[in-house]
Amino acid sequence: MDKVIFLDRDGTINEEVHYLHRPEDLKILPGVPQAIRLWRQAGYKIIVITNQAGVARGYYTCQDVENLHRHMNRMLEKEGARIDAFYYCPHHPEYGIGIYKKVCRCRKPGVGMFEMAERDFAVDKARSYMIGDKALDIQAGKNYGVYSILVGTGYGAGLRAEAVEKGEQPFYDFYAETLVDAAEFILKREREL
Ligand SMILES: [Mg+2]
Ligand SMILES: [Zn+2]
Fold this sequence. Notes:
With 193 residues, this protein is an alpha/beta fold. It contains 7 helices and 6 strands; from the N terminus they run βαβααβαβαβαβα. The radius of gyration is 16 Å and the shape is globular. The site of magnesium ion (MG) has 8 residues, from loops.
C-alpha cells in the first residue's frame, strides 16, 4: 500500500499567482523541497491535486498546465525533491467555456482527483494526508477520508486567524505554519501511530 501526501499546488507548493500558467512566474515556496525530501525519505508518495479553473475560463490550456507541472518537477529535482503525480481539474460549473463548463467530480472539494490517484496508486487512506491553504482543500480531504492539514502559506494563515477570531472550532485536523512544519509533524505522528 502507498502512504500518500496529497498536496494542493498554488499557495502550498508555489507562491500564489493569479491564474498561474507561465513557467517563468513559478516560485517554489521556501522549505518546500526540504519537506518533500523528508517525506520521500520516509517512503511517502507525493501527489498534487489542483483546481485549474483557468482552463475552464479559457485563460490557458491543459497543455500549459502540464508544461508548468513538468517545469515544477525540474525545479524540485534540482533540490533532490520530486512529485510523483499531478492531477488537475480543468472544469468550472458556471464560468467554464464549452466542454469545460461542467459540474464534475474532480473539482475540489469533490473527491474525483483522489479517485484518479487510486487508479495509479494503492492509497492507504489511514496513513495518507491532504494539505492545502484553503477550506476547500481541507473539505476535500475530509470528503475523501484522510487527515487534513491547513498550511499557513498562501491563504492559510489568514483563514486560521479568521476562524480563531470568530471563536470557531478548527475545520482542519492540524495547522502547520509551513510545509516543513507539516512534514515534521507527520513524521512524528507516524512514529506515534
Ligand atoms: Mg491553494
Ligand atoms: Zn473537474
